[in-house]
Amino acid sequence: IVIASASPYQRIVVTHGRSGYRLFLNGNLQFAERDEYRYHEALVHPAMSAHGAPKRVAVLGGGDGMAVREILKYPSVESVTLVELDPAMTRLFRTDPALVRLNAGALNDPRVHIVNTDAFQWLQEGGGGDSSAFDVIVVDFPDPTNFAIGKLYTNSFYALLEQRLSASGYAVVQTTSPLVARQSFWTVVQTVESVGLATAPYHVHVPSFGEWGFVI
After folding, report:
1. What does the pLDDT look like over 105-160, one tens digit per residue?
2. C-beta separation of 23 from 62 below 8 A
């Protein structure tokens, strides 16, 4: 254990071993340095490349900055809004040298605007009061294991999300394991479809997690 802290929202633990750094939130593995690229590339690149030239991007969750790192690889990107509930997470991944190296300094990029608030509330309030929509929205929340997180997987949430997408926009949602939690995976897909959005579910193998699912 190289970092152990408790914020008002969660327990944050970072370990370092032979396979590099690993992040645990409330005891649950969030990423392992050796294969996080598989997860974050699968999360970000299909939606970003489907759009073609996204300028305005939002990331909901993902306070470690890994998804932002992948988004910033696109020269068309002018701004990234990162909405992360826990300021302890964004502070850690913006200042700790080892963690900054992992996300390639993404959270210190001048194009990135960090908002520490509840994503549901942020959407309800019109996405920070900015009337213009986003070309791509990346939704990278933990699995819905309690009510507080579960509300971020409801049709109410996806209806709000849809309002913040540009006409040619794409959203992508981390959707748990289609192998281990098959019913949960397809429930998320059906919930997204229930607000009138077209879906494209897909999955990728991440050794630290096994088979992992997403839906565009």
Report:
1. 999 999 999 999 999 999 998 875 656 799 999 999 988 777 778 889 999 999 99
2. no
Residues contacting 97, CB < 8 A, separation 6+: none
Alpha helices for the chain (secondary structure H)? 36-51, 66-71, 87-95, 97-102, 119-124, 147-150, 155-163, 182-193
Active-site choice (109, 130, 140, 143):
140
**Dihedral sign from CA coordinates of 117, 118, 124, 126:** positive
* Cα–Cα separations (whole angstroms), residue 105 to 35, 37, 111: 19, 15, 12
pTM of structure: 0.95
Return the structure tokens found at 51.
């759009």
Q: Which tokens belong to 2?
A: 């190289």
Nearest to 209 by CA among 14, 38, 4, 67: 38
Nearby residues of 50 by Cβ (< 8 Å), 6 or more positions away: 170, 216
Q: Is-contact 136 170, C-beta < 8 A? A: yes
∠ CA 26-64-68, rounded to 5°: 145
| Residue 140 is a catalytic residue | yes
